[in-house]
Structures are given as C-alpha cells and as structure tokens.
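--- STAGE predict ---
source: upstream dedup step, 1 unique chain passed
mode: sequence only
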Amino acid sequence: MRRRAFTLLELVVVMVIVAIIGSILLAAVMRAREASRKVSCSSNLRQVGIAILNYESNYKVFPLGNQNSYSFLVALLPFIEEQSRYDSIDFGRRSLDHIGVPWTDTPSLYLCPTDPFTNSRINNYGCNYVGINGGSPQANVNNGVIITGSMSEKRRVRAADITDGLSNTLCVSETRSATIGGYGGTPQAFASTIATSRSYSLPSELQSFSGECFNGNQSPPLSGTGLGWYWPHASLGVTRFNCIFPSQPRNCLNRGSQRNALLAPSSLHHGGVYCCFADGAVRFIQTTIEPEIWQGLGTRNGGEVLQLGL
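--- STAGE serialize ---
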C-alpha cells in the first residue's frame, strides 16, 4: 500500500531545513541592507566634504568649529541647498536657545541611516557627523581643521595651513548620536559622555585618565553633553572632538572639561567608521588603527610621516 503522508521525523527534518534556509536568506538580506546603508552613509559624508570644499573655495578658509556658539554644520547650510533654513536663523540668539524651533530638525544629509537612534527621530536634532578639532592628547590644542576659533585666533584655517597635506588630514568623522535626558529622550550610553572623578594633566597623565574612563562605572551618562547630540551647537564634545584614541568603550570628560576630554568616533558599521579628509575624500577607517596614526591624522601641521593601511 502506497504511503501518502510524511512521518514525524521527515516533517521535523523538512522544518529544520526550511529554518536553516530562512536564516541564511535573512542574514543575506540584512547584509545587503547594511551594505546599502553604508553606501548612503558614505555618500552623505562625501556631500558634507564637498560642502566644506565649496565653503573654502568661496571664503578661502575652512569653516570655524565654533562661530558665536553655532557649529560648522550650520555654516555649511547654504552649500547643501539649505539656504532658506540658514536665512531663518536668528543669529542674535545662542544656538541652544533654538531647540525645538523647526529649523533645528536635522538635515537628512547629516544623518547616517545605520544609526537607528537618530533615524527613529527620538532626537530630532541629533547628527552623525562631527568635526575634527585636533589630534593631540595635549590639553587645549586646536591643531586640526575644524577648530574652535576665538578672539586670540589671528585667522581661520586656510588650505595652505594644512602642511601635512589635505589627503593626510581628517576633517569630519562619523559618530553615533547621543540624546540627553535633560532635553527629552533616553540617553544612548555608547555616545553619551561621563565625567571622571578628578582632573588629569595631559599628556603626562593620559594613561591614568584613560584607565578611569575605560574601566569606570558608565552609568549614568553625564546629562548635558554627548557627541552628535545637537547639530547646531558648536561645543567640543558635541559637534567636534580631538583625535586621541580611535576606539573607546565610552567617552569621558576630564572631570568637567570638554576641551581635553577623551572622545572617540563610533558607528554601527562593523569594524570602523567613515571619515572625510580635508581634500573631500571619504575613507573607512578601522578601529584597529594605531592611536599614534589616528592622532597624526587629526593634526593639520604635525609633520607626521603616516603609513596608512586603512
């Protein structure tokens, strides 16, 4: 007599095979989606780099990281087809006074699609690209491209001031965005910033500083700051940082100081972050890059001889 049905064992085997095939297909779909998101992220950062070059071509200087409390990302608005947004800003007020005003909703070009925290719109004013202020563990050094700017600065950074070469000097880096509980939303601990128990002298106490930062209690994050938290704000630790370590388990203020904090780039891309150089080129930099090379990439005039295996 011909058997017309599967045995229980055969059914189980078929279900296992289907489950395996499904998991393989799901993983392939997820990889394809992430590959697409990485391309979009790289493209967005490339457009930011082009905007910086157009700004430099127009004004013969690179944008300041801090101009009357407004970030370089604000200065770039007319160069990313956001002139009307730029014209709506009341520059007589501080950047922080504008939180919640429609123009502060983040331009899509400043977002990486891989970061679900930013793209969920929990934080309507977060961003994923921040400027490089310098590349040294020494305190209060502005030897990068997107520098602080102050009354003591005789002039802004020109292309001629980047003596290490435009192709050897970082301009903008990727970061996962933080949001701070004090302004609504739940902090994303990876990108938020905690404070150390005491102030450390840099660079002499860098090892002790990093020891407390990396091994200390990471909860709760310090309310009021975090890389990528608010794109119009010019502060170090929000839209700019100094290159010291290419990868960290968490970010730390040097007690209360942002100017000599330990901050690092971050992303959800496996193994590294996208960075834009001063010549506009975008490259994927692995988190395993040596700290000395990372610091050298952050300086515009350090004279380092860099062997880049990026």
